[in-house]
Design goal:
mainly alpha; globular; 0% strand; 320 residues; single chain; MetI-like fold
């Protein structure tokens, strides 16, 4: 167990190192002078030179990279050229919005996918299975911007059940908070259902055809006990990895949804940094999203290893 965790931890650190290096090099290659962005095009060459020196832009690229990496570890992520605030502060301020819609969308998609996937596997080629297949086809082919616009037109504009835009903090009331994130969360959950329903169904079908299901039937166990105690527990192991990967993908892919629903999250901040060419802010957001993706994948692998007894036995056998 310890050896497995350490190996995955070292792998995550290596990935973060290469991501940070590539991110720094690529963003530095973008044409434009950050000092000119701050002072404007009418600034004199002397003013630009002084600001470049104060920002460390005259240093060699290796020195700039090491200073940036050192600042990441000490909490000094630099200052946004556009907002004039610390990059880390801007990210932390918008983190609750992105986390809220990401987690809520995963809860919605897992609940729907688990129910439909299991019922489809228990009754293959039935009515529920046909409905599930239809939902999978629709959810897999509908882009987020289109489903978001349809949700806004129907549920916000026509039925007036949800707000058109904006985010309400949970401090102002739980119901207002849920009401403000429901539509964007459903919009994100639609695409995930197309993947998770198929995954739950195939995992459940595979578990139902295992030898231990036949053995439990021979022993005379009730049908519901065979399904819940044996098939369902086995079927949930594989989707854990998919759920972790999908959560990481959702966290880094909220740009479209946050802009459609005018949510002040990290995705919208990322788009603003790209439009305004705020390199310092863009670097911080990219490295933060990459860190979250690596962290979620690391946690997912550890959870799968703990849940799946076959992996544990394999690790113990290698250790012996």
């Amino acid at each position: 167990m310890t050896r497995f965790v350490l190996k995955r931890l070292v792998s995550a650190i290596v990935v973060m190192f290469f991501v940070s290096m590539i991110t720094f090099i690529v963003l530095k290659a973008i044409p434009g002078n950050p000092a000119e962005l701050v002072l404007g095009t009418e600034a004199s060459p002397q003013q630009l030179a002084l600001l470049e020196e104060s920002m460390g832009l005259n240093e060699p690229l290796l020195v700039q990279y090491l200073n940036w990496i050192g600042g990441l570890f000490t909490g000094n992520w630099g200052q946004s050229y556009v907002f004039g605030e610390d990059v880390l502060t801007l990210i932390v301020q918008r983190l609750p919005v992105t986390f809220s819609i990401t987690i809520f969308s995963m809860v919605i998609s897992i609940a729907i996918s688990l129910i439909l996937g299991i019922l489809s596997a228990l009754h293959p080629h039935g009515i529920i299975d046909s409905i599930s297949r239809t939902i999978v086809q629709i959810a897999s082919s509908v882009p987020a911007f289109w489903s978001g616009m349809i949700l806004l037109i129907v549920f916000a504009s026509m039925l007036n059940l949800f707000p058109v835009s904006g985010y309400v903090s949970i401090d102002r009331g739980f119901l207002y908070f849920i009401n403000s994130i429901t539509l964007p969360s459903i919009c994100m959950a639609i695409g995930e259902c197309g993947i998770l329903i198929r995954q739950f169904r195939s995992s459940m079908l595979s578990a139902l055809n295992q030898d231990y299901m036949i053995a439990s039937k021979v022993k005379g166990l009730p049908y519901w006990m065979r399904v819940v105690k044996y098939a369902l527990r086995s079927a949930l192991i594989t989707p854990i990895t998919v759920i972790g990967n999908q959560f990481a993908k959702l966290f880094g892919g909220t740009v479209i949804v946050e802009n459609i629903f005018a949510l002040p999250g990290i995705g919208r901040l990322l788009l603003t940094s790209v439009e305004r060419r705020d390199i310092q802010l863009l670097q911080g957001i990219v490295i933060f999203i990459c860190f979250m993706v690596v962290l979620v994948n690391f946690i997912t692998e550890v959870v799968v290893m703990m849940v799946n007894p076959m992996i544990r036995l394999g690790l113990e056998g290698e250790r012996e």
